[in-house]
């Protein structure tokens, strides 16, 4: 089978989205002819990809299957108008490519949260025999409305209609969070939906003994969806309790948070700029707690962030304010602490409880390793996707 993957973010970019599509490409390529339509790496900034350390996967570096569209507009522009122009430019180029070449493929697989890409790929004449697979990694436009400084109330009804039409135009839908299933089924019934979480390859897995010098770590984006204020509160709580807290961050508010740490002259709280995925995993494994915080919004609190999977797959207990599927997962399998809309005080109390009991920490770590094996290995999960797309029982 020949598959076209369409994604805005792709290797060597950092972030769970780019890493997910990288692994989808590698795993699907074991059985199928897979091509990727994407852009040049630029998130969180293009200059960092001049460093060779980000280009660590020779299989992709040497591949002729990666088609990178050349863009005139800047995705990382601070102007919202210019960023929208970037999205429109990218959507136009994707539309032109799909219209011209979709007949070459058995399946076109498009991923959100950039909603312009599936609109461009699917809102046009369908080539007979080509399956349309939509991957939903964010509930758009609801998530946009919950982001500060982006008032879309005037256009919201239209966007919701377009969202429903997008689900209707898709043959099958893949979700990275089980909590999205009910939402989608309410909008459009009788549509095949597969839960395919972010995961680790067997080569990526690795575990370390819990370090004696207790440390909490936060890795990843500090942007619109993340609770910047609660992250500040956590810094003060952990500083007061003399607990080492390391942040490896990037994104809209990363440098602001770094300045905040320096201004307060914290002794136990440190900040480092973005690292490669491999470097971050090493740091996570050398920590006792993986912290994940999002804004107190129903949209954000019901996602399954990559950093939660990173903690579980590294055998490190996760502490979070998330609800929904993530909370159920963490609490059911006893791999940390999760409470929807938990306060900074509650999160700090959970961390102190784990710090005060090596026996409890050891149990949580062992449970995390078992959960990795049962839920979050790409080699196991990719077979579900293969069956979902290509088995006769799933065909329309």
TrEMBL record:
The keyword Transmembrane does not apply. Residues 209-370 form the Glycosyl transferase family domain. Keywords: Transferase. GO terms for molecular function: hexosyltransferase activity. The keyword Transferase applies. CDD domains: GT4_WbuB-like (cd03794). It comes from the Bacteria. InterPro entries: Glyco_trans_1, Glycosyltransferase_grp1. This is Glycosyltransferase involved in cell wall biosynthesis.
């Amino acid at each position: 089978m020949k598959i076209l993957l369409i994604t805005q973010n792709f290797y060597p970019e950092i972030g769970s989205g780019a890493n997910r599509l990288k692994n989808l490409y590698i795993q699907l390529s074991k059985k199928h002819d897979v091509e990727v339509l994407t852009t040049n790496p630029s998130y969180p900034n293009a200059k960092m990809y001049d460093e060779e350390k980000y280009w660590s996967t020779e299989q992709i570096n040497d591949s002729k299957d990666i088609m990178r569209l050349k863009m005139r507009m800047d995705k990382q522009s601070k102007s919202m108008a210019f960023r929208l122009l970037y999205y429109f430019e990218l959507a136009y180029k994707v539309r032109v490519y799909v219209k011209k070449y979709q007949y070459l493929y058995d399946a076109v697989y498009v991923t959100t949260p950039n909603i312009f890409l599936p609109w461009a790929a699917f809102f046009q004449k369908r080539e007979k025999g080509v399956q349309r697979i939509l991957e939903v990694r964010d509930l758009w436009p609801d998530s946009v409305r919950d982001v500060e400084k982006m008032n879309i109330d005037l256009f919201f009804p239209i966007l919701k209609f377009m969202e429903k039409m997008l689900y209707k135009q898709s043959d099958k839908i893949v979700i990275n969070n089980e909590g999205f299933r009910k939402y989608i089924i309410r909008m459009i019934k009788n549509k095949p939906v597969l839960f395919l979480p972010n995961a680790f390859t067997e080569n990526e897995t690795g575990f370390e003994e819990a370090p004696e010098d207790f440390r909490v770590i936060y890795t990843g984006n500090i942007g619109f969806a993340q609770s910047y204020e609660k992250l500040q509160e956590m810094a003060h709580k952990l500083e007061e309790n003399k607990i080492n807290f390391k942040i490896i961050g990037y994104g809209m508010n990363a440098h602001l948070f770094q300045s905040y740490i320096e201004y307060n002259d914290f002794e136990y709280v440190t900040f480092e700029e973005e690292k490669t995925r491999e470097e971050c995993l090493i740091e996570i494994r050398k920590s006792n707690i993986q912290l994940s915080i999002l804004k107190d919004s129903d949209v954000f609190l019901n996602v399954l962030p990559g950093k939660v999977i990173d903690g579980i797959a590294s055998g490190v207990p996760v502490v979070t304010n998330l609800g929904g599927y993530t909370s159920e997962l963490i609490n059911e399998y006893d791999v940390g602490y999760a409470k929807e809309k938990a306060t900074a005080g509650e999160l700090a109390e959970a961390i102190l409880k784990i710090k005060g009991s090596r026996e409890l920490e050891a149990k949580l770590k062992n449970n995390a390793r078992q959960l990795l094996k049962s839920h979050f290995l790409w080699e196991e999960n990719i077979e579900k996707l293969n069956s979902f797309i290509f088995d006769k029982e799933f065909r329309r």
